[in-house]
Amino acid sequence: MVAVERYPDDPEAQQAAHGTMVWPEKDVAGSASMGAAVSLRGLTKRFGALRAVDGLSLEIQRGETVALLGPNGAGKSTTVAMLLGLLTPDSGAVSVIGMTPREAIQRGRIGAMLQEGSLMPGVRVGELLDYTLGLSASPLTRKRLVTMAGLEGLERRRLDRLSGGQTQRARFALAIASEPDALALDEPTTALDVEGRRDFWANMSAYTATGRTVLFATHYLEEAEAFASRVVIISRGQIVADGSVAELKRDFGVHTVRFTCADENTSTLERLQGVRQVERRGATVTLSTTDADATTRSLLASAVAWHDLEVRSATLDDIFVTLVGKQEEGGK
């Protein structure tokens, strides 16, 4: 976690020294009494015969970093678009920081970074930043915004001459120009290199540590596992899982305990605590279990003669594939 500092006398110099955003701290306790940062209630959106979002309800509290995961066509981008007021739900309601999406955007309370939509060709980076800052009631300084978004040295470059990673940085600058209370990000680290992705998430950690809120849709499951305080998995427009990574692993994960054993009798192994399935290939035994720790302790206490023990915990990728697969099968 990046240490969060209060505004110094020279925030730009402080940022240059630390390489992270410096955000003013929010009164988390006070803002909590104002309700959830984001509230989606019974959202439904159809495109012809396709029901892209199907009765989706979700509340995101202030200070949370929530990853929205799902396969292509699951309804992630449609959900984000309704959150931002870019699409009107066929039914249901949206509240952002206690107001409508339009009000939240007009007041600079929520910022967005979307996959779709191109930046204005021929316009220079600095010109776009000045225009955006001029629309905000309480904007950052241009110098500070450039530092925060990592756009140093690019202010005179035309937007259509930026690389993919530089374009993502410019999009991010537009999202944070008003110092919003919440950010909605759709695939935010696409086209960023490893260092750029690392710096981005370090800055997001600093942002949410001040009581602000992030909702991000991503295909990078390792980012969701590493940086999200909460993961929401959707498929066919519905939520199929919601919780921290640890909770999802506990509730939906299947772990494996693998070892070598000459004894072909599997009855003892089937009775080990937590074991759901026993698979043998030659002398190699693989136990599928809902609790790897309990199974391992039970194995150690048994009379089974084993060696070369290997324990593998379920990953978020495993859980994602399992849950989405079940939803897809159920929808056929």
Structure write-up:
The chain has helices spanning 11-18, 28-32, 76-83, 101-106, 125-134, 142-149, 164-176, 194-208, 221-227, 245-252, 267-270, 292-301, 316-330, and strands at 38-47, 50-60, 65-69, 91-96, 110-113, 182-186, 213-217, 230-235, 238-243, 255-260, 275-281, 284-289, 307-312. It is of the alpha/beta class and 332 residues long. It folds into two domains: 11-248, 3-Layer(aba) Sandwich (Rossmann fold); 254-313, Alpha-Beta Plaits (2-Layer Sandwich), CATH 3.30.70. It has a six-stranded mixed sheet with strand order 5-6-7-3-8-9, sandwiched between helices. A four-stranded antiparallel sheet has the order 11-12-10-13, with helices on one face. α8 links the parallel β6 and β7 (213-217). The protein is elongated, with a radius of gyration of 24 Å. The model is unreliable at 1-19 and 28-33 (pLDDT under 50).
